[in-house]
Amino acid sequence: MLALIREYGTNKGEKIEMAQEKTPFQLSRRWDGYKRRSHRRIKKLAQILQAIRREPRGLIGTSIMAIILICALFAPWIAPCDPYEQDIVNRFAAPSLRHLLGTDYVGRDILSRLIYGARVAAVVSIGAVGIAVIVGTLLGAIAAYSGGAVDYMILLIFDVIRSFPSVILILVLAAIVGPSLLNIILILAFTSFPAYGRVARAQTLSVKEEEYAVAARSLGAKTGRILRSHIIPNILTPIIVLAGMDLAIMIMYESGLSFLGVGVQPPTASWGIMLRQGYTYIGTSPLMIVWPAILLATTMLGCSLFAESLRGALNPRERKAGG
Amino acid sequence: MDERLLRARDLTVEYSTCRGIARAVDNVSFDIREGEVLGLVGESGCGKTTLGLSVMRLLPRTGKVVQGEILFKGRNLLNLAERIMNKEIRGKEIAMIIQDPLHALNPVFKIGTQITDVLRFHKDRGLSPHGKGVQLRNGAAKMLEEVGIADPAERLTDYPFQFSGGMNQRAMIAMAFICNPALLIADEPTTALDVTIEAQILELLKGLVERYGASVLYITHDLGVISEISDRVAVMYAGNIVEYAATTPLFEDPRHPYTEALLRCLPGVETQGKRLGTIPGRVPELTKLPKGCKFHPRCPYVKEICKERPPRLLEMASGRSIACFRYER
Amino acid sequence: MLQYLVKRILWIIPTTVGVLLFLFSMTHLLPGDPASVLLGPRATPEMVEALNRRLSLDQPIHVQLGRYIWSVLHGDLNESVWSRCTVSSLIMRALPYTVILTISSMGLAAFLGIILGALAANYRKTLLDRLVTVFSLIAVSVPDFVAACLLLLVFAVALGWFPVIGAGEAGDTADQVHHLILPCLALVIGWFGYIARLVRDTTLEVLDSDYVKTSRSFGAPMRYIAYKYALKNAIIPVVAVIGLGVGKLLGGAVFVEMIFNRPGIGKVITNAVYARDLPVVQGGVLIAALLFILANLVADLSYACFDPRIRYE
Fold this sequence. Notes:
Chain B has 329 residues and is an alpha/beta fold.
């Protein structure tokens, strides 16, 4: 299998294909089309990754995000200490070999708590953005495609939600439904799906009337197929870019909620909670607040850089040649 | 006595691109006499727009004039200070109109403001401070009327997006002629317009050029327009002028292989019913120019010497200049 | 222009109705009957009975909704559960502090952002440009509350230059300004980064545009282009995002007021959330939403003033 992947697209790969036994589906014409499209998609993905790598911004952003993701996934193996283990005798300790970043007000290792905090950040941001993208894009596309009363109602829903300053809405909703990880993800998704909805709607509206969509319709293509092959790919680019930038914002909101005490509850390690505890003891131990602050800012920076390089990679700008 | 208004000598312009240095204009020399219309024709990417921009010294950041001189009324434009270029040359002695007038005009300023601004840059001294605004506006309105815009006084307060393509181009022409320039550089002014509007604009230009006695450097890829408006023609290919002659002789009897091929591609009475001609091959990339004559890969008369050295633009007895080894004696 | 104005203002009405509906449904979505929910854990049966009558909570839903909207339009936002003050009085007392904070932060951030963004674009690729770019990038990545905490740490706790809490003595303007500086700076940092970036990108785009090339070809000196042409085209997107900025700043104000203990709307809402004082939460959020809607309206109208293309839709 690996050998096949390595020789993807070369003549050798095709020869190997010929040698093996084929199922009836593989012998059909749809298989050829499918293979060709997969070839193109993988090639395009490789091009995008290359473009990201070329700019220094992209490299820095991707590295930071990768580090955070690794921390999130492998926290139990990476963290030097147990994030919940208290050691009152050693509270507010300065950085040492055992506790690389010091300890907090009950003696817990700050570094380990930060690493475990990455878990919360990753889960919340990816979950919230994922749900918001799916719900928002669907609603926006439906609104644009249906038009009329449906469009009006959906647009109204978007605008009502957007009339509230995000933080305040999130705060109040969190207070009402109660703090839990799932609730936070749902609330954050609820607050941000209108943005995706509006983008999806605007893009669908413009693509719907594009010549190729009209041409496809006139050739008899069904609505579903048009939506799938023409509309969705064109919508995806701005949505993906928006989602990239949103990741950073979601992490910020989660920390903010935890900071105010209506987010994830202690003793769970979340950067927001660590910031809050650092704020309470700001006179005693400034390090308690500085480390989470640096990490949070760096993570958001990484996400923003990544999103920006993504935008650059997905929208190549044409340069005018001298005539 | 030198009645050449503009003389360009050995002009070379290069762009630095991510794929290397592109030589857009290669050792080009040409003249424009007073009251003459010189047509500069060639395919996209042959360097004609770059040539126009270099006369105005408006090359983008990536472009540079690496050698040559451009003498306008005896002064080398390439040596002038930027301040003097702005004050005395641009808009005043030499004016430029470009393609796609909708994007050439600032969308958030009124047309009237943009026209009076040109006056403000150059003819400010002659006006008294009292009622200056009114005088400027009157001047602008008068100019709009001359270019054929109805209700000029009302149109002054309109914005470019409210005008049609043709009207925008007329407004630009008004801005160009308002300070009575000696030379007009027109870079594909009608390419973005409908054919009927194109005809009107050409008529307008011809009338204004005659009335104001201006010379014109008319840049285009449209051979039909060139035949209609120019006195002399320079044909450009990949940065070189390959043929340089008076209009009628050029069209009746093209000498350079490229000019021949170009004219053959035009649909006409002779080609009716037959397949339209094409020129085999492609325009070379400016970063990877072939050795010797740049046209030789596509030339039906290619010889060994064409692959070794580039031909020079030499003047023939008939008064036209050709850059081709077939005619080099 | 008038047509655009009318259309824009009319759109506010269904949005506001939607907002009211949303807030109204808050009481009914929580478990338990609305009166107990509103009164909270200290409710006695008599209080429940009284509230039921007062708010006609035994009536069908649409009557309740109508009554709610009617009372809101008359400025009656109910009473706080804990104190006996009306919600309106609580909000009115806190509102000025938030408004001053928001306006000063927005003004300072826009002022600095426009100047530095324009300078960075006009002197592109110089040291100034690089500094501005890097600084804005970092500034945008630091959340408001983090910036507030760090400012608090450095300037109030460690250096002692600024007061840690409060909003200053009423009547003493200098003292109030002194108390305003750190909270304002905390909010300015994030928004300044955004604006500087926006202005720089837009100005660069303008400087490379065809119409600037045309102006130059007619002899416009670079200074004229930078100030008159480029500036106007570059300010337009800044005006467009004023609404967005107010939303962001109002949200940031919630944190900043908590951290610096400033008695503004943000603090009122958050404390009410902690105390489960639902009427105050409802009223506070309503006012915040109305402010936000108003800010967006102002932004859209100003944008139409600057960009004529919108007016002549």
